[in-house]
Amino acid sequence: MAPSTQVFLLNKALGAIQRVGAEGDGLRTVVAGYAGKTPDGVQVYSNHIYYTVMGDPKSDDGFIDRCDLDGSNVVRIVDQGWTFTPKQLQLDEVNQRLYWCDREGMRVMRCSLDGSDVEVLVQRGETEEHRLQETRWCVGITFDLSRQLLYWSQKGPTKGGLGAIYRCPLTPPPPGYTPSDRPDITTLFSFLPEPIDLQLDLAEQRLYWTDRGAAPDGNSLNSSYVGESEKRLLQQWEEDGERGYKVLRTGFQEAIGLALDVERKRCFVADLEGGLFQVALDGSGKSKTLFRGELGAVTGITIAEL
């Protein structure tokens, strides 16, 4: 049987990882047992599923687990105490690393695929007072190996219009600096409604993100060119003005999860009201509703050809 696109989604309501076909067919639960712990970020690689679990936002008890594709052989690879509330997860196949954002930890982190060599790359706050400031909360993440760049979002207060997306080198801080004061961070966008998960189309150098903020531009799918072509940057300025990005689709209900299928020029978006949608990447905003409310709260998603 030829491989088909499978969407893996984290169902917060069930505390489970589920799997479904790209047209909404064959929904089934792969692994459960995380009720009340909020699974949030997920990646599939080499017959394994890697996923973050936030735990209690006040207890510093988040962790990262791995299981086989059928849900068996669950292994704790990053134990409690190493990461506070891990959020979106990305996987570097070339260097065999995991990257994730830590919300209440206010940081961007990485480790080896087996959970060893945990590192903090960016630290946006350190005290309990800082932890209460949602503008410091790191949530979405993606990276570009060819340009050695790391991208992440800081959501800001709920519906607050203070979210931002940042970029820095995909390396530890320069000599003489720490993750807290590294000087090589660039602000790409600020005063966003409430940006959440990120994905990058490497060939087109186009960044995509979900936003769960307030209307008119929140609860949306967005994109922006983030490459080095002056011609493309000028074109974007002419089309989008000072905002600098396109709102591709609105109308989601607390949009969180995002997975790109660049080959088929589409993406998948999930929201906390139990929705899962296909959205065209041709700028038309055309979309197909796979589920609307039936799933329960969905957080992170990813796709795999299986």
Automatic annotation (TrEMBL):
InterPro entries: 6-blade_b-propeller_TolB-like, Cueball_EGF_LRP_Nidogen, LDLR_classB_rpt
Gene3D superfamilies the record matches: TolB, C-terminal domain
Record-given protein name: YWTD domain-containing protein
Highest classification ranks of the organism: Eukaryota, Fungi, Dikarya, Basidiomycota, Pucciniomycotina
